[in-house]
Amino acid sequence: MIESLGTALANLLTVEHLAYMMLGVAVGLMVGILPGLGGIAGMALLIPFIHGMDPVSALAMLVGLVAVIPTGDTFTSVLMGIPGSSASQATVLDGFPMARRGEAARALSAAFSASLLGGVFGAVTLTGFVVIAKPVILAFSTAELFMLAILGLSVVGVLAGRSIPRGIAACGLGLLVGAIGAAPATGEMRLTLGVEYLQDGVPLVIVGLGLFAIPELVDLMRRARPIAGDARLGSGWLAGLGDTLRHWFLVIRCSALGTIIGAIPGLGGGVVDWIAYGHAVQSTRKDPQFGQGDVRGVIAPESANNALQGGALMPTLLFGIPGSGSMAVFLGGMALIGLQPGPSLVSTELHLTYTIAWTLALASVIGAGICFLLAAPIARLTLVPFHYVAPAMIMAISFAAFQARRSLIDLALLFAIGMLGIYMRRFGWARPAFLVGFVLASQSETYLYQAVQFYGWGFVTRPGVVIICILAAISIWTATRQRVSEDGAISPSAGKTKTEGRSIPYPANRLPQIAFTALVLAFIAYALYDANRQSLLGGVFPGGMAAVTLPFAAYLIWALWKGPREGSANADLEQTAAYDPASVPSAWPSVAWLGSLLVMTALLGFIIALTLFMLAYLLLRARTGPLAAVIYTVLAVGFLATLGYFLVLDFPAGLLQSHYRLPWPLR
Asked: How far apart are CA 191 and CA 514, in angstroms?
C-alpha cells in the first residue's frame, strides 16, 4: 500500500497530470454554469478526446470535470434562480432570495467554501474507505435500498410548506409523473396516452427546469427589474466564508450524507440536495429563515452535492456500478482507456484509485478558488435589468431541455411543466415535494419489486429495513413540528401566511385554485383507472400511489369550496406570498413570449425561431436599439451554434426543414 501511495503522489504532481486536470476543471466550470446540462453532457463532451490517451492523464481530465460541476452550477442557481443542474435545485430556495436582496456575494462565498469542504470530504472518504467500503456496500440489499428511497420521501414533510395535504398531494403527483412510461417489472406502458415520446418516461432535466427555472423566469420577466436591487455585490465574501466555518458541523453532517447517498447506486444526485436541505431544516432551532434567504439553506445542499462525487466513485470503481448518471459515462471513459473497474483497482492498480481520489480533492480546491475569482464579475449580472438577460436565459434553458431527447417535444414538455410550476408556485403547492417524488419514483418501484421477489413481504423484518424505517419515522415526526415553505420561513402546521410582517387575507380568487386542484384530481383519477388496466405487477405502484393521493386532492377541493370562516386562518387555503396580483403585472404576456418561441420552432426550426425571438424581444420588450439587438443576437446564437457543433448536435427542426433542405445549423 505504501508503494501505491507513493506512485499516486508522483502521478498527481506531474505537469502533464496537472495540465489535463486543469483542462477538465475549465470544461466542468463552463458546463456547470450553463443551466441544466450537468455532468452527463460534460462527460459526453470529453469522451471523444480521451480515446488512446494515457490512463492517468485521461482520468485527470475526467475527474477534474466531475469535481467542479457541482461548484460551477451554483452561479445560475444563486444569481438567476435557475438550477444549474439537478443537484443544485435546493440551493435556489435560499440562494436566490439572498441575491435579490443584494447578498449574492455572501451566498456565493458560502456556497463555494461549502462545496470545497464537501468535495475534499468525499475525496478523503474515498481514500480511507476504498478497501473496507466493499463489504459495506454489499450489505445493502434491495430491501434496504427500497427503505432508503422511503427515507428520502420522508423529507416531503419538511418540504410540504404550510399545508401537509398540499405537500402530500404534490409528492404523490410527482410519484405518478415519475411512473409514466414502461413498468420496471413487466414493461407495460403506463400513462403515456399513446405518445411514443413518453414511453421512456419524462426526463429529469425538463422537470427540474420546468418546475423551477420557468416560474422564476416568468416572474422576473413580468417585473422588468434587476434580479438584485443592491449594487454592493462585492461585499460579503468574508461573511460567506465565516458562515461556512461557523456552521462547520452542518457541513460535516451534510457532506457525510452526500457521500453515503452517492455510494448507493441509483439514489443519485437528483435528490441529495433536497435530503440535505431537509436535514438542515429539521436540525435548525436558532432563528430559522429558510426559504427567505437563510445561508444554511445554501451551505447544506452545496456541501452534500460535492461530497456526492466521492461517494459515487465507490461503487463505480469497486463494482462497475455507476453511482450516478455522470458516473455511467465515466465508466465508458474507463473502458476507452483500457481500465476495468473491480478488484484490480483495490489490488494491482490501487495507485490509480488513490490518484483518482486525490485528483478529486485537488480539483475541488482549485475549482472553488477559480469560482471565487470569477464570482465578482459574474455576480454583477444581477444588476442588469432582466429584460436584457432573459433572452440568453431562455436560450440556455431551451438548449438544456433539448439535451434530454433532442426532440421538439422536449420544448413542448418544458413549456407544459413550466405552466404546472407557475401554478404550483402561485397556489402554494410545494414544488420540492413534487420533485422528490418524481426522482424517487423509479427506484422506489424497482427496489420494492425486487425486494418482494427475493424475500417476499417478510423483507420488512430485516434489521437494516427496521433501522431505516425508524429513521424515516423520526424524520416524519420532526417534519410535523417544523416545515419550510419555498416562499417563506419555517412555519408551524397551521397559521397565517406572512409577507413583510403582515398577514395575507384569504384570497377571493378561489375558482382558479379549485380549477387547478380539479385538474390534478382528474390526473390522479386517470392514473388509478390506468393502473386497473395493467397487470398486478405493472399497476400496483401507480395504483397504490394514486389511491393514497386521491383523498388529499379531494380534501383540498372540498376545503376550497367550503371556504374559511371569517377571521379564521386555514393553512390549506392560504394565498402564498409568491402571488400578490395587486403588486405585479400579469404573467400571461411573459408566458405568451415563451409560447411564441415554441410555435415558431415548430414552424421554422429552433435556430431561426430563436434568432427572430431574440430580435423581437430585445426591440419590443427590452427597448434596446437595433444595432445592440443585432449584436446581442448574433453573439448568443453564434455561441449556441458553436456549442452544438462540438456536441455534434442537430437543433429541433420545424415544418420549414421538412420541405426545404437547409445548411447546418438551420436544419
From this structure: 24
Radius of gyration over every alpha carbon of the chain, rounded to an integer in angstroms = 24
Locate 190 and state its grid cell. 403506463
- At residue 227, the pLDDT reads 58
Amino acid code (one letter) for 349: E
Q: Note whether 437 and 174 are within 8 A (CB).
A: yes
Which position has the grid cell 418516461? 201
What type of residue is 529?
Y
User: pLDDT at position 11, please?
Assistant: 74
Q: Is 229 strand, coil or helix?
A: coil
CA gap 273, 277 in Å, rounded: 6
Backbone angles phi, psi at 532, to 5 degrees: -70, -20
DSSP three-state, residue 201: coil
State residue 345's pLDDT score: 67
Instruction: Say what the pLDDT of residue 616 is.
Output: 92
pLDDT in tens, 525-545: 999 999 898 888 788 888 888
Q: How many CB atoms lie within 10 A of CB 278?
A: 29
As a whole number of angstroms, the distance between CA 619 and CA 478 comes to: 52
Distance CA 113, CA 368 (A): 7
For residue range 418-462, list pLDDT tens digits in order.
Answer: 999 888 888 888 787 787 788 778 778 888 888 878 887 788 888
CA torsion, points 184, 185, 187, 188, in degrees to nearest 10? -110
Residue with cell 431551451: 398
CA 37, distance to chain mean position in Å, is 11
Q: What is the pLDDT of residue 252?
A: 93
pLDDT beneath 70, residues of the chain? 1-5, 34-45, 47-48, 51, 84-87, 130-131, 133-139, 152, 154-162, 223-235, 264-270, 287, 319-326, 328-329, 342-347, 378-384, 475-476, 478-509, 563-585, 647
pLDDT, position 613:
92
Burial of 171-194, coded b for 16+ CB within 10 Å and e otherwise, reads bbbbbbbbbbbbbbbeeebbbbee
What is the per-residue pLDDT for 523?
Answer: 93
CA atoms 41, 43, 47, 48: torsion sign: positive
> Which residues fall within 8 angstroms of residue 334, CB to CB, at 6 or more apart?
340, 341
DSSP symbols for 415-441? HHHHHHHHHHHHTT--HHHHHHHHHHH
180 phi and psi, to 5 degrees? -60, 135
Contacts 24+ apart (CB under 8 A), 178-182: 178/202, 178/437, 178/438, 178/439, 178/440, 178/441, 178/442, 179/441, 179/442, 179/445, 179/527, 179/541, 179/542, 179/545
Q: How far is CA 307 from the centre of its chain?
A: 16
Concatenated DSSP letters for 587-640? SHHHHHHHHHHHHHHHHH-HHHHHHHHHHHIIIIIS---HHHHHHHHHHHHHHH
How confident is the model at residue 294, as a pLDDT? Answer: 85
SS3 248: helix
With H, G, I as helix, E, B as strand and everything else as coil, classify residue 266: coil
Beta-carbon contacts of residue 419 (< 8 Å; ≥ 6 apart): 214, 591
Mean of the per-residue pLDDT values of the chain: 77
Burial profile 350-378: b = 16 or more Cβ within 10 angstroms, e = fewer = bbbbbbbbbbbbbbbebbbebbbeebeeb
